[in-house]
Design brief:
Structural class of chain A: alpha+beta
Distance between the termini of chain A: 11 Å
Strand content of chain A: 25-35%
Helix content of chain A: 25-40%
Shape of chain A: globular
Oligomer: homodimer
Largest sheet of chain A: 4 strands, antiparallel
Radius of gyration of chain A: 13 Å
Chain lengths: 95, 95
């Protein structure tokens, strides 16, 4: 399963706050089950999101374990909810 | 650049119309510059899109050439606009 979130920060690009957020986001790669985490720039003029994060899980159970992991829960509470202005989650599996 | 479109069809899953659309969508892989095209299922309960298509381009110019290619233009006119109820385009590049 490929878990993707497109989002826009409340902070200016390149600001200390934005860089601290991105560093915290990248640190989620250390959580069990997270594979190939990448933080990317969103460039389509057809939506308003400016950044993205994508990661792979072997299956939906691995994603659920990540989602419930204390380090992820703390990240959402302390960083995501404070720093992200808008977002959309997209999850892909084989058709 | 990774070009992704999440979408929902006007047709029932598994219908002849849906299968014909997906076959036409997969045939876009034959257009110059399209790499690693995959059609996938969207499973997040947090959005209303039910399918996705993703592909890689070496750069934005390659994407623009694909977008303007007659086979792509014909697909959008004859298939996409008729068969897709809702969609969102997302384009990722390295940060």
């Amino acid at each position: 399963m490929r878990h993707t979130v497109v989002f826009t920060l409340r902070h200016e690009e390149g600001s200390a706050e934005a860089e601290a957020f991105l560093a915290a986001l990248r640190s989620l790669a250390a959580i069990d089950g997270v594979q190939e985490l990448e933080v990317v720039r969103e460039v389509s003029p057809k939506n308003d999101y400016r950044l993205g994060v994508a990661m792979e899980f072997t299956d939906h159970a691995a994603y659920d374990a990540y989602s419930a992991h204390p380090d992820h829960v703390a990240f959402v509470r302390e960083r995501w909810d404070a720093d992200v202005a808008d977002f959309l989650e997209i999850d892909f599996v084989a058709l």
